Amino acid sequence: MERNWKPNVTVAAVIERDGRFLVVEEETADGLRFNQPAGHLEEGESLLAASVREALEETAHHFVPEYLVGIYQWPRPQGDITYLRFAFGGRAAGEEAGRALDTGILRAVWLNLDELRTCRERHRSPLVMQCVEDWLAGRRHPLELIRHYDA
């Protein structure tokens, strides 16, 4: 049987405050890893809505997307999955204290650039650092680049 290939569409939130970036420490098949608040696009959901939802579910912070940082295509080295990531930059607009985080998320933590670089071997993928580097390089594209049409 021939398999139809398709990428896994994901979203990520790049949130910087006072020189620190909001990341999550999560359990993965490869052990504990750091990632931006990120996850899969769900059926019927816009990319922007997905980024807001994922940030809240994984960090208990309300995310306000302001820019598209970039679109990233990453085939995992194992060759079984290709991710198509839409990374949004924006701000945290409050935290829901006491909110339970998604299963597998150990904690949300604010790390500065040096701390992120130091733990690079524990990043979920090379996209984590690339998104931060792109944000720091001033890559900020208008959200109007993305159009969502309801069915």
From TrEMBL:
Enzyme class label: hydrolase
Cofactor: Mg(2+)
Keyword set includes Protein transport: no
Keywords, in A-Z order: Hydrolase, Magnesium
Classification via InterPro entries: NUDIX_hydrolase-like_dom_sf (IPR015797), NUDIX_hydrolase_dom (IPR000086), NudJ (IPR033713)
CDD domains (UniProt xref): NUDIX_Hydrolase
EC nos: 3.6.1.-
Boundaries of every Nudix hydrolase domain copy: 4-134
Lineage top rank: taxon: Bacteria
Pfam family, one: NUDIX
Example GO molecular function: nucleoside diphosphate phosphatase activity
Keyword Hydrolase: yes
TM region(s), chain numbering: none
Family: Belongs to the Nudix hydrolase family. NudJ subfamily.
Quaternary assembly: Monomer.
Protein name in UniProt: Phosphatase NudJ
The organism of origin for this protein: Pseudothauera rhizosphaerae
